[in-house]
Amino acid sequence: MSLFKTKHLSIKLTGVLCLLAATGYSQAQLIHSIHPTTTNNMKNQAQQVVTEFLNAVQVADIEQLNALLHPDVEWSQPGNSRISGIKHSSNEVFQMVGKMFELSSNTLKLTDIKSICVSGNKVACLLHWNAAQPAGGILDVDNIDVYTVENGKIIKVEVFTADEPKEEMFWGD
C-alpha cells in the first residue's frame, strides 16, 4: 500500500473514531470495538496487579507493594483524621500506612477481600479491615477501594469507607 493510501486510511479511521467519541462512545468502548482482546488484556492486567497488591498488603510484603505502586501514585484517604487526605507519592502512602500501624499498635489487618470488580483499567474492591488500640478503640469496617492501573502499576487509589465517623474516631484528629 502506498504512503498516500496509508495516510488517507489513517485520516479516515481517525475521523470515524472522533465521530464515535463525539456521539458518546467511551475510549474503552472504542478500543473494544476495534480490538476486543485489548480491553480484555487491560482488564486482566489491572485485576492481576490489584490482586497481587492486596495479597502483598495481607502479608506485609513491602517490596512487592513498592513494586506495584507507581512512585507518583495519587491516593485519596477519606475523612478528617490524621491519616486522611490526598497523598501524592508512594513515599507519602507508606508514611500514612506507617502512621496507621503506629496508631493501631501494629494490629491493622486486611481481613477479607470480599469482591473485586473490573472495568477497563479500574478495579473496585470491597475490603474488610480490623484493628485495635490498647486504650480499647476498635476498627471493624468495610471499605471500597478503587484502583487505577497503567503499565502494570497502580497510579491512583480512591478509598471509600462504610463508616467514616468510626474511622475518624479510631484514627483521631
Automatic annotation (TrEMBL):
Residues spanning the signal sequence: 1-28
Entry-linked Gene3D superfamilies: 3.10.450.50
Residue ranges of every copy of the SnoaL-like domain listed in the record: 50-156
The keyword Coiled coil belongs to this UniProt entry's keyword annotation: no
This protein's UniProt keywords: Signal
Highest taxon above the source species: Bacteria
Protein name: SnoaL-like domain-containing protein
Species of origin: Mucilaginibacter lappiensis
